[in-house]
Write a structure and sequence with these properties.
Length: 343
């Protein structure tokens, strides 16, 4: 009888289930790993994604490190979703904290010694994206920082975000705002989101005047994160831009900020001549409505466990918190002005 994936799955499932009480389980897993690596890899991935037996998953992790199929899975966007790859990567790092270094060394190195075997194209970008999500701190910078200057523009842009998030250098970002590739500029700006420095605010304001709409959007989002009301001075300019990309970005940033007061402006953009602008505006409206529904549901759920007096008090605080406290002139539509909260 030919051995297929279903048969291997059944044996691996049983070995994992009986791992502690059946001495044959370990031998079985090792044998499948050695003799049927491709089939074993597919079975093991199911358990690593949703570990149901820590001891068995520890052995699976040890065995999987030697499997080329694991690296194929992590690097191939077709093999599985990004979220699934991230879950497996986190599981591997739980048992081997240096696993991110192993994966990082699959990317083109600084000296060019591994370029004939290294990951390239979409696979390299996918791996760098996963590493950005699961590997914290600066430990990988010596291994990967040179990729900012890669000839692969997609990889270079992704590396810019990876390196920038770990450096959090305003000056580094300011220098990259002169880069010709808008993807590099946009990712450099995103990398300093949350840096509470006057210099960061200045760089973000500069990026909000960029010639590329994605750079502008990231700059405005960064300013919003830092509670800078100047954001609301830029939105009317974007809405009235002759370029549809900037009008679409206006809708995007309003959706990300999520203030209900944006609904009137978004209604206008939903009637825009450009279909991409209309789509962005609809998505923003949906996002704001979902946030409102979640807030109401959360208050109602928590209210079930409160006394009537406590409920009344908290609702009063919530109502006060959502009142507009910053009047923003210039966003007036049809003779009206609209107000937005800080923060």
């Amino acid at each position: 009888m030919a051995v297929n994936q279903q048969i291997v799955d059944s044996y691996v499932d049983r070995a994992v289930e009986e791992f502690k009480k059946n001495p044959v389980a370990t031998k079985m897993l090792r044998r499948f790993s050695d003799e049927l690596p491709d089939l074993f890899c597919q079975s093991a991935l199911r358990h690593l994604e949703k570990p149901d037996n820590p001891d068995a998953c520890r052995l699976l992790s040890i065995l999987m490190v030697r499997q080329q199929g694991l690296f194929e899975f992590l690097s191939d966007p077709i093999s599985g979703t990004r979220d699934k790859a991230i879950r497996v990567m986190r599981r591997m790092m739980a048992f081997d904290p240096s696993f991110d270094v192993r994966v990082a060394r699959r990317l083109p190195d600084r000296a060019g010694l591994n370029h004939h075997t290294a990951l390239h194209g979409r696979r390299a970008t996918r791996v760098l994206d996963i590493l950005d999500e699961v590997s914290s701190g600066r430990r990988l910078l010596p291994v990967l920082s040179h990729l900012v200057n890669s000839d692969d523009k997609n990889l270079s842009a992704k590396a810019t975000l990876f390196v920038g998030r770990r450096m959090q250098s305003v000056q580094w970002t300011a220098n990259l705002l002169r880069h010709q590739d808008p993807r590099i500029r946009a990712n450099a700006v995103e990398s300093i989101w949350g840096v509470a420095q006057d210099a960061a605010v200045s760089v973000l304001e500069d990026s909000a005047r960029d010639s590329n709409n994605r750079v502008v959007g990231n700059g405005l989002m960064g300013l919003h994160i830092l509670n800078q009301p100047v954001v609301f001075e830029f939105i009317p300019q974007l809405m009235s831009s002759p370029k549809w990309e900037f009008r679409s970005t206006a809708a995007w940033i309003m959706g990300r900020i999520g203030y209900p007061e944006f609904m009137v402006a978004l209604t206008v953009l939903m009637k825009d001549d450009n279909p991409f602008v209309r789509t962005s505006a609809r998505k923003a409206v949906i996002s704001i409505r979902r946030a409102e529904e979640l807030t109401v549901a959360t208050i109602a759920e928590r209210a079930q466990n409160l006394t009537p007096e406590e409920t009344s008090s908290r609702l009063a605080v919530a109502e006060e918190a959502v009142q507009p406290i910053v009047s923003v002139p210039g966003l007036g539509l049809e003779g009206q002005n609209y107000s937005y909260r800080k923060g």
